[in-house]
Amino acid sequence: MQSIDYPLFQAINGMAGHFALMDAIMKFLSMDGEYVFFLGITMYWFTRTEFNRRMVVEALVAACAALGASSVLGSLFYRNRPFVDHHVHLLIQHAANASFPSDHAAASFAVATAIWNSHRKEGRAWLALAAGITVSRVWTGVHYPLDVLSGFILGTGTAVAIHACHANSEPIQRVFIQIIRLYERIEGSVWPRRYKGEP
Hints:
Layout: H1 2-13, H2 20-45, H3 50-76, H4 82-85, H5 103-118, H6 120-139, H7 145-168, H8 170-190
Helix pairs in contact: 2-3, 2-5, 2-6, 3-5, 3-7, 5-6, 5-7, 6-7, 7-8
């Protein structure tokens, strides 16, 4: 993998600076794509259905677990950012911290996979967004392909595992429901539900 990692990075990052529109898209995805996920998760939550709220809790737990695992791996297998060791086309500013694995890839694929687990059709669009964010991190010069591939595996695997645990473990289901009910008691005091037929 290492033998093709840097050549593949050069091939992808080498396109940066030659296509103004693609550069703009990749910069947006790399810096702001995660906010689209925040907006999406918020919208799902405020549909106020238990199904979607369980999905959102799954997504948040999966993202936190993926980021936690990413932090541990980054400490155990520290790797410099590409721009530290090589001349790259750096399109965005970034701290010279651990490159492996990619937190953006891990978190975005954790959330996208959690959505896909519950909503197959629209989940494909979220997976496409996660893939775009993942590619953008290489295009803009802040990650190697192996970094984002590892983040993809970590995020996807975590979301699948959390979903399986939630689906097959009654204690975990009860915890999720208790979290949702606690929030809904607070929410109901400031935003009461209106049911069909009520004025």
